[in-house]
Amino acid sequence: MDEDLNITYITLGGHVEVHKYRYLYFMVVFIVYILIICSNSAIVYLIWIHQNLHEPMYIFIAALLINSVVLSTNIYPKLLIDFLSEKQIISYEACLLQYFLFYTLIGSEFLLLAAMSYDRYVSICKPLQYPTIMRKTTIKVFLALAWLFPPCQLVGIAAMSANQKLCDFTLKVIYCNNSIYKLFCVSSKAISTYGVFIFLNLGCFPLLFIVFTYTRILIVCYQSCGEVRNKAAQTCLPHLLVLINYFFLISYDVITVRLESDFPKTVRLIMTLQLVLYNPLFNPIIYGLKMREISKHLKRLFFFPLNMIKYKQ
After folding, report:
1. N or C: which end of the chain has fewer CB within 10 A?
2. Prediction pTM value
3. Could you say which protein family the record assigns here (predicted)?
């Protein structure tokens, strides 16, 4: 704690041999961050400029990719600073802000995935009613809920955590997450109960809704022609892979803190990084290269200039 400024600092003790490999860590994470920004932004740009991509499915994909960029920006710049610093510290207020934004954006991602699953459900199971149900107003409501509902829930738990007395000032992680509860002198039943409530609302309930919609989609596809089955596989399989991966990583993040599991430092580092690495980095691949319309525009964007150069030569 800085007595002069009355600032409480938290040490981020989850780094592995950071003083030895600081420049290697910095270069790898910097390259990954640039890739995340460029790849996600490229697809969002394509969806924005092409009129035929102004459909609900692609709008939700753009929202998901924007969410990934903001989530990465909440984590990666601070990581880069820590790699080049002698001490990996953060003020408790900044830690709470990072924690709040981290879980807000994760909650938004689950709700966006739920909105995407509903869009696919209506498109495949109720195709004649799709234009009536998935109107612009409906899309705006879904986007507003996805980005406003999580912060409204998490602001309460962040405020309660800000008023807790701290007896420990070291986290065994590289960014602020659920493990801040281990800093408290006395564990709060109110915070724990509220945390479970938020986990159910932003994680489990959206998951159950998505499972329900996919079950309905699979039933309809099994009874339909090959064209419908191909459409479902093309649009739903990437969505399902993202969901399964994300839910298991979030469950690890929440459950290990609650059970106070003591994993080796390297294992903890790897698992923590996966949560902020896989989805932001691979979402553009899954929703870019694997989605026919987006993939077509991507090829035009990157290969058309090369073809023009070859033509001039």
Report:
1. C
2. 0.87
3. Belongs to the G-protein coupled receptor 1 family.
